[in-house]
Amino acid sequence: MASLWSRTERNGSSPLIGTVVRISRKQDVALIAIPSAGNQQPCLELQPTTPSAGADVSAIGSPARQDLAFSLTRGIVSGLRLVDGVQLVQTDASLSPGNSGGPLLDRQARVVGVVTRKIAGRAVEGLGFGVQIQDALQALKLQADLTTASELLQPAAVVPRATAPRFIEDLNSAVPSLDPEGDRRRALSADRARRERERDDARPWIVTPLRVAGMVSCLVGVTGILVSTVDSNDPSLTHKDYVKYRSQNDVSWAAFLLGAAAVGVSYPLEPRLAPARIAKVPRAWYVGIGLGQVRLGVTLDP
User: What is the enclosing helix (H) or strand (E) of 302?
Assistant: First the structure.
C-alpha cells in the first residue's frame, strides 16, 4: 500500500490510499491504483516518441517536503544516457529529493518521463535523470488507453515481497538548508565551543590561580625591569642609589621568571581538547540508482 497525496490534501482533505499493482525495480517505476474520488480526474497525456536533445521540459514534484508540493522547475533534455542497461532522459531541470516519482513534461504538458535520480556533488550540477515514459510502460507491460483493463483492477495483480511493508506513509523530508556551508561552519564552531566547555569543566582548580598569579607577577616584573633600567642610567645617580636600582632590577627579573614559570606549568595540568565529533567528510560526486536502494551514493526517493 502507499499513501498518495492529492492537491486537495493541502487544503485539509485526507490522503488517497493506493494499491501497488505492478512494479519494475530495474526501471524504478510502479503502477498504483487509487480509489475513485467520486468524479473523473483528468490524466496527463503521454509523449509517444523519444524526446530529442534540446527539447524544453519541466519537472513537477515536492522537493524536500509536502509544503513545497507542486513545485515547477524548467530545463531542457540534455541527452539520452544508458545506465545499468536502463535508458534515461538527462535534463538540467532542477531536481531535489522529493521530485522522485514526479513527471517530466514537454511543452504540451505531455509526460516525457518519470524523475528518478540525479548526480550531485560540490562541482557537479544540472545532471538530473528520468525514466522515459515509453520504457516505463514497457517495463510494466502496459499500454496507454482511454479505459483501464479489468485485470489491472484486481487486488491480487501484485504479490508484495515478504520483507516489504504493506503501507508506506509519505512523510516530509528534512527542511533543505539555504546555506549548507554556513550551517556546516556553525556546527563545527558549536562543536568546538562544546568541547571547550567540557575541557574547562574538567580543568583542575589550581590552573586558574597559577595563570592569574603568573600573569600578574610577569606584569609587575616587566614594569620593575623597565623602571629600574631607566633610573639606573641616570648620570647624576649616586653609587648607593645605583645599588638600590640594581637590586630592584634583580627582584623584578625574579618576579617575571617566577610568573612565566607559573603560567608555563599551568598548561600541562590542563586537560586536552577532545577530538571533534563532526567528521569532515570529503566532497565527491556520486550517482543514486535504484528503487529505494543505494548502489553508488544516494537516491532521490522521498
Answer: none
